[in-house]
């Protein structure tokens, strides 16, 4: 829990953070790894970042060093209205990086709130309250780690997000399921969140020794054009080892190719944000 007082900037309401949802209904494509390490990289270059763990598996919480027994309050409590986001947010070992942890309780949420009118907007409301809370850190980015499904949890993330970041694994069936995901984004845009955009597609687990990886990169770039980030995340054993130490790879081994790729991705994300802001102001 955050208890230190962080005053909001003098004169007026503080700016709301940019909310990016890491979504892909396919399992094991790098959503959580990207939430943890993009979050760490953004914090390392001066942003104040909150990772919201919206997956009952709780891998983002574990990977950020939050043991299960330390999760007194969780995103389940936030989405049921039992706790505020500020009470739930915990510090991590990385300065300026925080996490709202999850527990297995979250897997029952969908049934519990299925009949509620505001069921798709629970996260959006909680983040709005957080942005207005003068006792909370002034987050500049919120990264929402989604479960591998297009369930109510992912819909909550999409309804709360400014934009979606889609991790795609460099494997044979990479594009399979992408059209379903894009259809869901379109449905959310029409019915719940007209401002929602696709921030970008990040290719993960690229293996340079494998021709297939290169073929997948070319196919995805051809299909999705400049929505695909320049940065490709390589398959790197340091990236997969880090979570078992409860550390982001940038803390575990800053020099490895995985860490360096996530730093490049963070600067690309910030560049796209600047370009989007300049377009909006023009
Ligand atoms: N760049 C990488 N290099 C090596 N291993 C990786 C890399 N990215 C992810 N992995 C490993 O691949 C597995 C799946 O990654 P991750 O958990 O991030 O995917 P996910 O999309 O969040 O999965 P789920 O759908 O189950 O939530 C993990 O064991 C992770 O450590
Ligand atoms: Mg995950």
From TrEMBL:
It holds the Pfam family AAA_31. InterPro entries: AAA_dom (IPR025669), DNA_Partitioning_ATPase (IPR050678), P-loop_NTPase (IPR027417). Residues 18-198 form the AAA domain. Coiled coil: none annotated. Involved in chromosome partition. Localize to both poles of the predivisional cell following completion of DNA replication. This is Chromosome partitioning protein ParA. It comes from Xanthobacter autotrophicus (strain ATCC BAA-1158 / Py2).
């Amino acid at each position: 829990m955050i208890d230190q007082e962080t005053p909001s900037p003098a004169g007026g309401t503080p700016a709301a953070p940019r909310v990016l949802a890491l979504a892909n209904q396919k399992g094991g494509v790098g959503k959580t790894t990207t939430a943890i390490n993009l979050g760490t990289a953004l914090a390392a270059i001066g942003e104040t970042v909150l990772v919201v763990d919206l997956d009952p598996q709780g891998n983002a919480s574990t990977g950020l060093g939050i043991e299960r027994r330390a999760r007194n309050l969780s995103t389940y409590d936030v989405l049921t209205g039992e706790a505020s986001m500020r009470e739930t947010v915990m510090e991590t070992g990385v300065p300026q990086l925080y996490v709202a942890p999850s527990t297995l309780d979250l897997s029952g949420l969908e049934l519990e709130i299925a009949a509620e009118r505001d069921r798709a907007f629970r996260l959006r409301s909680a983040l709005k309250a957080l942005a207005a809370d003068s006792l909370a850190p002034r987050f500049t980015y919120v990264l929402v780690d989604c479960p591998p499904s297009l369930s109510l949890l992912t819909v909550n993330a999409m309804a709360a997000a400014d934009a979606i970041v889609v991790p795609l694994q460099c494997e044979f069936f990479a594009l399979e399921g992408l059209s379903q995901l894009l259809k869901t984004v379109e449905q959310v845009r029409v019915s719940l969140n007209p401002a929602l955009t696709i921030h970008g597609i990040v290719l993960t687990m690229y293996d340079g020794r494998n021709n297939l990886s290169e073929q997948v990169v070319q196919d995805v770039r051809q299909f999705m054009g400049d929505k695909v980030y320049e940065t490709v995340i390589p398959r790197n054993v340091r990236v997969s080892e880090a979570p078992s130490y409860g550390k982001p790879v940038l803390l575990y081994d800053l020099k490895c190719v995985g860490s360096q790729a996530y730093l490049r991705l963070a600067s690309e994300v910030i560049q796209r944000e600047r370009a989007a802001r300049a377009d909006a102001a023009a």
